[in-house]
Amino acid sequence: MKPIGEIALIEQIRREFPTARRSGSGALRLGIGDDCAILRPPPGHEVLVTTDFTLESRHFDRRLHPPESAGHRALARGLSDLAAMGATPMAVFLSLALPPDLLASAQGRAWLRRFFHGLRALAALHRVPLAGGDTSESPVGARGGPGLDNTGLILADIVLVGSAPSGKALRRSGASPGDLLYVTGHLGGAAAELAGLTPSSLRVKTPRNALDPSRHPQLFPVPRVEVGRTLLRRNLASAAIDLSDGLSTDLAHLCRASGVAAEVEETLLPLHPLLRRLEAPRAVNLALNGGEDYELLFSAPPSARVPRSIAGVSITRIGRLTKQKPDARKTGAPFVTLIQQNAVKKPLKPAGWEHFSTNSGHKSTLS
Ligand code: ADP
Ligand code: MG
């Protein structure tokens, strides 16, 4: 089979993402087809940009993640970053490097079609048009790469552009001692589902109700875009971050940026239903360190009226922020204290996803 060429592939992408052609609608003035896309943020808004690599065998495993899931997750990561800052998505850009086998075989092309399908379904849900990208063949080393059939790796880089009212975007750095700490949805589900994935999971398609992460929190996480927008609009949060790497790691980021410390109460953690079958210590470990839940973590002053649910998503108070010890930065003392079930306090070290871990590979290595 003749490999599909770059121009044909871009044509396929244009066909599969018809919203991209409707330039002129909303923020997108000009989409795929020219040297640049043209975007116009609403008056009085600033532009927010985030980029995320999705690398085969690092962020997904072709033997375990269905192609729809790989596409969905690539976009969900960027949408979750916009959500964390309360932004509204304007457009997405997709740069792809694909191994030759993917473009040359019927099986490979089917993988790509299903990848686009997963990405498109989530993009449609958030009304974010694919406005451009870049396409290249990924290099194959002398001995081949660790991809399927040992022929090379799929690399997808997503750029998301969003807008927020000028000066209002939620940041990691706005929290104060005394603020209360909240999370959306449930924790630990993505890691729990990952631990149970088998090649039979490849048959799972994008769930019809893609807004319901209760079934597939790992394969189809739901970015909390509407919650973030509401927090911004109602001026509820003093600081926010999305939980991509795990609560223990991401909360430490928020603390460092805000110059505060935090106390988390173990009994308040909203454990994902998939954790209920597990022994308590393992369940709590996954909720604290599992990562990839893409829920929002935010702080709010005690005077803020934080509702129990926003846009249909539950909001749970899990702890509070405290003063940082004066020498915390020098001594490297952890920012976060866990108040355990027995009321004993222990320091909580960041133990989530490590981007440059020596035991590199997919997160499925997490126990
Ligand atoms: P140039 O060489 O000027 O960068 P390209 O031939 O790479 O142009 O791309 C042509 C058009 O197709 C551009 O508008 C670009 O944004 C779009 N495009 C290329 N690859 C992708 C992709 N993977 N997804 C979406 N749009 C793409
Ligand atoms: Mg190009």
Features of the shown structure:
367 residues; alpha+beta; eight-stranded mixed beta sheet; four-stranded mixed beta sheet; 14 strands; 26% helix; 24% strand; globular; disordered C terminus; binds adenosine-5'-diphosphate; binds magnesium ion
Distance between the termini: 42 Å
Bound molecules: adenosine-5'-diphosphate, magnesium ion
Question: What share of residues are in beta strands?
Answer: 15-25%
Give the integer mean of the pLDDT values.
Answer: 90
Q: In sequence order, what are the helices and strands, one letter per element?
A: HEEEHEHHEEEHHEHEHEEEHEE
Estimate the helix proportion, in percent.
25-40%
DSSP strand count: 14
Give start-end ranges of low-pLDDT stretches: 358-367
Overall geometry comes to globular
How many helices? The count is 9
Could you say which structural class the secondary elements and strand pairing correspond to? Answer: alpha+beta
Rg from alpha-carbon coordinates: 21 Å
Main pleated sheet: 8 strands, mixed
